[in-house]
Amino acid sequence: MRSRAYLGLLLFLSACATPPPPPSTRGTRSQRIANLQRAAALPWRDDGQCVVHEASQPWPILMERCYQALDHDRVEFHDTAGRCAVASAGAGAMGVGLCVLVAPEIVVGAVIVLGVVVVAVAIKEALDSYELRHSYPEEAGTARGTKVASREAEAQRKPKLKPEPAGQDWQPPVPPVPVDRTGHASCEPVPVPHAGEDDPHDECADTFPPNRYPGMDVLVGGVRFDALQVGVRVLWEIKTHRFDTYNEFIRDQEIDKEIEQLRDERRVAQACGYDFVVGVSTEAHRDALLAVDSFLKIVVTGCKR
């Protein structure tokens, strides 16, 4: 009986919903943004992950697939227009909620959210990413760059005391970065391709935090970070070079260089509202960094080169 009732509900919803327009690249993109903006007004238990995944679908299909992810304890549905009585007879409260939500226009008072709605993390990031890509198309995957602009300038000023470790420490030219209305570098995360062409390092950055944008670094506040952790506002710097194999002089030089870099990255991350974590391959590397700056958050990844 329940399956028949639910089938009847879906047929009812398809009759209520506005038929989707013919698919097109621009139309799909507009539909996706409209769906994200509409869903942003609702509370989600999964941080909006389902909505982001299904955002390109017509709104009724999105709601059918993501309805269970709503925070139902914070939402009340009222059939103020009287058009969901058929649904309520067949599938109970779930049918009324779906019917109200998939309507082309939500009647005032039909959906009541208890408490203040904070836009779900995944939905906010998807909307922010779209806005940044629209405003700064050169940053949408074509940029090639380095960790920080100031680092390359610093490297040019300072004489090299030792051969640089191969791979992750090679830094190509700095890409242009988006700026906000004040002229400062934007705090919104912009994915850009991994720099350095160091496969073991990039694999560690993708899998250990884990990285929200696999295969990509992330540009925040004008600084390139190795990873933005999935589900939380944590930026990562990953170190995988074989620190334990260096002699004492080289270790000291390496720590001095890294401490300057990590403090700069931590300052930018915190200024933009992110936490900052350093991943190193060995305990010896972690201990050497903490001996200089005990406030760094350092995790031993065990990643190999």
Automatic annotation (TrEMBL):
Pfam families in UniProt: DUF6310
Residue ranges of the TM segments: 106-123
InterPro entries referenced in this protein's UniProt entry, alphabetically: DUF6310 (IPR046277)
Keyword Lipid biosynthesis on entry: no
Keyword annotations: Membrane, Signal, Transmembrane, Transmembrane helix
Ranges of residues in domain DUF6310: 180-303
Region Disordered: start-end pairs: 140-175
Protein name: DUF6310 domain-containing protein
UniProt feature, compositional bias: Basic and acidic residues: 149-163
Record's keyword annotation contains Lyase: no
Signal peptide feature range: 1-17
